[in-house]
Amino acid sequence: MASNWQTVVTERQMGERRKFAASLSMEQAATWMVLVPVAFFFVYPLWKLMALSVKTDTGLGFAHFAEVLTHARTWDAVGHTITAAGASTIISLVIGVSLAWLCAYTDIRWKPAFHVLALLPLLIPSYVMTLAWTQLAGPQGVINRAASWLAGTPVEIWSVYGLDGIIVVMGLTHYPLVYMLTLSVLYRIPKELEWAAHSSGASALTVFRNVTLPLALPGIAGGGLLAFISGLDNFGIPAFLGIPENISVLSTLIYEEVIGFGPSAFAKAAVLSIVLGVVALAGTGVQWLLLRKSRVDQTSAEDKSIRRYLGAKRGWVELGVWGFMLVTGVLPLLSMAATAFVKAYGLPFIAENLTWKHFAFVLFDHAGTRDAIRNSLMLASLTGILCVLAGTWFAYWRVNRPSFTGKIMEGAVALPYALPGMVLGLAMILTWLEPIPGWQPGLYGTVWLILIAYVTRFLILQVKSSTVSIMQVGKEVEEAARINGGGFWTRWGKILVPLYAPGMATGLFLVFLTAFTELTLSSLLWTSGAETIGVVIFGFEQAGSTTYSTALSTLIVAAILLLLTAGGLWKRYWQRRVEQ
Amino acid sequence: MNSARVAGVSKKFGSVTALHNLDLQIGQGEFVALLGPSGCGKTTLLRLLAGFESPTNGEIWINHERVADAAGRKPPEERRIGMVFQSFALWPHLNVYENVAFPLRHQKQVPDAYKKDPRARVGQMLEMVGLGGMEERFPSQLSGGQKQRVALARAIVFNPTLLLMDEPLSSLDAELRMQMRKEIQYIHRELGTSIVYVTHDQSEALGMADKIVVMKDGRVEQAGTPQEIYYAPESLFVAKFVGRSNFLKGSWSNPHTFLLEKAGGQTQPISVSRDYASFHAHRVLPVRPDQLKLKAWHPGMDGVVGKVTHVQFQGRELLYSIQVGEEEWEVVSDVNERFSYDEQVLVEVHV
Q1: Which residues in chain B are closer than 8 Å to A477, comparing Cβ atoms?
Q2: Between A25 and A559, residue with greater pLDDT
Q3: Res. A7: pLDDT tops 60
Q4: pLDDT confidence of residue B335
Q5: DSSP A405-433
Q6: Phi, psi of B86, deg, nearest 5
Q7: Are A181 and A230 in contact (CB under 8 A)?
Q8: Residue in A20, A481, A487 nearest the CB of B71
Q9: pTM to 2 decimals?
Q10: Cβ atoms of residues A104 and A187 within 8 Å
Q11: Mean pLDDT, range A80-86, rounded to an integer
């Protein structure tokens, strides 16, 4: 019997044997094709950073550490950094948890609009929001002018400049992080657990304190830590509110060190970066552990039914919440737009003082701005495209071939995002001046270095959102295409890309938006001709051209809102098509 | 003639061996059910046939072509096999027509007539599975049973010579499962395609298959017709896993006579008509509940005597539990003669 079978082996089939053999080693090649770039782009720069910090004139040693860490200014900055991040986290926690509870559990109305408004501070770049706050609560801002008008003499109730301003704006910028993580945990707490407590005689307050809060704690703590890490990372807020008052945090100190180009500036900046990086990574580590602990909750289904009826108090609660969000989210932006429309900074906002000319200037007359808009559009588009391709491919590989190597590599890809932007920016300069000894690609000082830095930093955003879609779609759908004759291109073109589209589009959208308005990395890496929008706004503000910086920022906010609307409409269309 | 053949195939995942040196033949037009508990390797075997996995050792042949061996494999998209997945695996962004027409555009060797007029062919297939006129619906608008029919239509639309089914009915409710069994049998009859059907449900395997392959721990435990598997199990595992079995305790005096142990050290000889060699060492005789007959017992009668401990009315039959010595036997009998709880009965063994 077996010999009969052997006789039908033709030459053609023997030839295919070689093709078979090739397919196996292809899998190993694929692993290496992921491993090598990941190590080079994501891990090597941090190695360079560490190497520089311990390199001295005489060899290896901790001389730079000794110098930097004995400097009083360093410890001032460390103190400010911890204070700002810590105090702002408390603000974020109070606001984020309250809003999440209201949205998840109570019967307040207009929840979709509520949700969007609560996320708004995260979607608008923090330096734009800060600029908006200077127009609302700066010495010449709306609040102080209104107070002066009421008092009849110039008075200053509160100025947003200084450490207290940094704390408030940071807290208001980062509360959406706490809100989002808490919201998803609250939805997943089975309501039977709360009912059981109620039926055992517990009051509403007791139930909240003894059941809801402990169960939601992993999410709350995770959100709080994320807000804390974002506070360490943030450059825009302390740069706009601290530098004019001569208050430094670590991120602005690194910036000033590198820009100052003093002797051994890079080495000193590297030491500061390592200090900041270690604190941030420790925070990320704790956050990761907390979220891992709460994974049990992630598997249970979301329950979005109303659990608490506010009754007669509902109207008051709504008034308070909407009032709060409008004052902290919308009013600053309106104040900023108002500044952009007046002829000269400081004039009252009345019809005869209004003009379009600042918008016209930044859009058409100022060459630097035009170039910056072009650069930012180009950078954001290319970063988006590269990330959506590489990130989806990486996510696909990760989901379909789960392995320990894959886990480590995902950690490596996440590293540049977990590290403060300033730290990564410095590592990028150090790496790409001379990536391999003897090879100087001449990227430093061009937009291409910014592009590499963006892809390195934002790739993880795309990986995460593509992963969600790939896991949801599952493997069988692709296998069904394979068994029915679908080759590689058919599979990806007709089946996988359309089905992965939501995750791919969400990631693309997020990466594009983040890169388009990025400030931290580009503030370190820009040179003349390679400015970005963030750099130009920062430059206008430092030069005191407030009308121009507010005009450009207002345009950016309008563009973001337009993009968000378009994204929302597309998502609705897609859902209607597939889910019907 | 064989449609597919598995020769000496082993499959290892890391240090775990899922299949041990396995041989299997699937004849032309044969309906083969791979039956076994979860983790027995049946799904791995199906995935090897489909081409989603490579064998660690051995060869796989489909339609006289070697498609896989230890060196590598021909990818699934080139094997021209129909397959029905457990989760249906319909493409949610394509409508029913586009789902079913996909293989017509992409499979190898699709008859020209189908390629020229895919609308007609898809329409014909949908009629066959009872979904005529549903071309424009999207999967999300279909019920579970309808989805399974679309999946079936997609798997057979290009006239495959081999159709693989991976627990296709396990996500349907009981009534639909019975309905779909008939449809699968109908399609098998109409098309004459060879089918490899993976299931852990013995009644599906017994009801539809020409041949059942019972698997356990990556090995074939027994292969045969449903009748052979049911009435002539060759191992304790098969006797237990397929249908219910009573294991009567005793000893074998010779291959044709089983000496049943009775109370007080007595034995009752039972003559058997087939070979029970694999049970000799275990000192048991496997007996199906319907191979036992109950009779009214009167004082002084000789034979195996038991006491009724439970009676369950099942509609057209009665299910008894009979206490015989230390053992409890299950007996199925028709409803004509009824014994009640605690009654003494005479049990006859017909094997």
Answers
A1: 89, 91
A2: A559
A3: no
A4: 84
A5: HHHHHHHHHHHHHHS-HHHHHHHHHHHHH
A6: -60, -40
A7: no
A8: A20
A9: 0.84
A10: yes
A11: 95
